[in-house]
Amino acid sequence: MINNYDHKKLIKTALCTSPLIAVMAVAPIAIVEPFKTSFILAAIAGFTLVVLFMWAVNWGLFYLVETYSYQEGTNNLQYVFSYLLTFMFVFIAESYFDPNGLEMNTFLTDPGWAIIFSLNTIILIIQNLYIAREKKAIVELENSRLKLKNAEAVNLQLKQQIHPHFLFNSLTTLKTLIKKKPRTATNYVVWLSRFLRSSLSSTNKNTIKLSKELNLCINYLEMQKIRFQSSLEYQLNIPDEVRDSGFVPPFSIQLLLENAIKHNYMSRESPLSIEIWHEEGGIHVQNNSNERKISEPSSGMGLDNLAERYQILSGDEVVIEPNVDQFLVRIKVLKKEQSVNPPVEHKTLTDQ
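User: That's the sequence. What structure does it adopt?
Assistant: Structure tokens below.
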């Protein structure tokens, strides 16, 4: 656990707070008994070194407790030893500068030990606040990683559920085409092989290039056009620079197209029209609404899973705008590619 903390940030905190704590310690003495500026500056410098030493002692005690403590409640030993070491430090310092300080009565009446104890308390408070924030950040980071793994597992499960049903429909369509339209069947096999090749190459990433996702979608739509003929229409209007530079989760746009075909009735007189375009950093997928009374089988988890993947990958929302005549979904074009298990740096919540 100790290795998860940002040691550089802790050192920076110690260096920044030590002079401030030293000023707090010297200020009351300077007010009661005015001294020369040089003496006050020397006192501040001396207290700064003392505070830095106390920071090192307290962080060392925390390291020992975190590393070698195996029982609950032993963390309190850190505070006990912290004040014992502080007491010993003040006693030794007092005896070095003032031999009379060896007498316990004289030592206890000296305000120096009370000041040092107060400084130690301030250091412990700051250290505990830092540790609490770091632990919270680590827990949130681990929760995000678990959510991402869970989303990947759900996504894989969806693929395993969807692909057999998709292949069954494809083979059924191919069987019909071979009997009635052999040449069309050949074209259908070409589009099917391209789709399967693209889908297999997209399973090891959390995001893929937008151009690859769109190629997958074109293969899918061309297959569906062979199946539904003039009952299905689509328009694709996305600039080349966006295709080449943007990223999206795999099967994200294809999922929206599949949902549109699954849940809407289509015919030659009332075709299903799908439009895909880029606007304001997002991909818009819109279709005219003509909901089927009996839809094709669906897990009902596709959009929810897509929304969860976007939330984990980028924190963005999947915008859904249904109405009587149109159904619109907007997803954001991402700027970075992410692997299945991206390396996670040990950062605090504020650093991310």
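Residues 210 and 242 are 8 Å apart (CA to CA).
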